[in-house]
Amino acid sequence: MKDGFTNMDRLAEVARKEGSLNVIALPRDWVNYGEIIDTFADRYGIKVNELEPDASSRREIEAAAQLKPDVFDLSLDVALANANKFAKYRIQGWQDLPDHIKDRTGAWYAGYGGYMSIGYDPRKVAAPTSFNDLLKPEYTVALAGDPRQTSAAFNGVMAASLLNGVPQAQRGVELFTKLRKAGRLTEPAKASVVVDWDYLNGERAAKAAAADADQPAWKVTIPKDGALGSYYVQAINKDAPHPAAARLWQEFLFSDEGQNLFLKGYARPARGEAMLMRGSLDAELAAKLPTAPGPPVLLTTPQTDAAKRYLRKAWGTTAG
Question: What is the pLDDT of residue 63?
Fold first, then answer.
């Protein structure tokens, strides 16, 4: 173990003496972070200070100098752009993480991910099989925010843009422009369909089932023509005020227990494949995930940058 901590017991001992951990942008109802935070705090006797739970990834970085978070949970594009702000640290499960979702120096690494999905109310509409199905008049559709500002909404547009696995931002914008002109692009509370990450639509489905198990009010599907995936990555602030607690937090998140807690929140653990091979992935929880049609399409940095430039120019005059 690096950074002067000879083993986990020593790391935990120093972290307990620090006494606190500052996290940022972790809503308690996002991928089960409420239970994750509480479990960590109870396990180690460390107070977790939850800063700006609803902050965006960009806001996390902008606020770091003032708020002094110890750790970050970021979209991949923001992590790539700010890697020089992170302390390099390789967690014990480093070898279990696929190479394409970690920085080789240990500056950042994916903690969990998901597919862009279509959540729908089966009492009102039939299950859509593709994003183009949403153009049918029976569907009232919502994105999870403004795609120029919100990662989930941006990726929703990009999932709809895929043609044979290739993103075409204009194609996605055109689909939502047609929905807006037809008066069927609305907010999530009024929609029969919500385009969002499968873990968030999965949470909606679980709440609906808890309210009425006999007649579920929400189901989730991942269209074969739009299997877009993405990861959220973890990183340690280079200027972390509680450096041992920050490293202990990472070790906890990437332990089998931590990864299964993400799975309980309908997210797909970054170490999931290795855990499945070892038999440590919670099979009951995994069975609750929406069925994936195959490996996800992951946007490259150039693709993401080009698409964001296009949306900044086109969204407000067309679909916005």
Answer: 96
**What residues make up the domain containing 162?**
116-229+292-314
Per residue in 268-299, pLDDT (tens digit) is: 999 999 999 999 999 999 999 999 998 999 99
Cα 143 to chain centroid, rounded: 15
Three-class SS of 148-186: CCCHHHHHHHHHHHCECCECCHHHHHHHHHHHHHCCCEE
Distance, CA of 258 to CA of 277 (rounded, Å): 17
Same-domain pairing of 194 and 146: yes
Res. 150 pLDDT band, cuts 50 70 90: confident
- In the DSSP assignment, the letter for residue 141 is E
Measured distance CA(304)–CA(71) in Å, rounded: 24
- Residue 62, pLDDT > 90, answer yes
| 222 in the same domain as 301 | yes
Do 116 and 198 touch, CB atoms closer than 8 A? yes
**Count H helices, E strands: the chain?**
12, 12
For 39, the 3-state DSSP assignment is helix
Query: Which pLDDT does position 212 carry in this prediction?
Result: 78
Mean pLDDT of 195-223: 89
Residue 63: count other Cβ atoms within 10 Å of its Cβ: 16
Task: Indicate whether 56 belongs to any domain.
Answer: yes
Residue 222: which CATH number?
Answer: 3.40.190.10
Q: Which residue has the tokens 């806001």?
A: 59
* Statement: residue 229 has pLDDT above 80: yes
195 in Cβ contact with 144 (< 8 Å)? yes
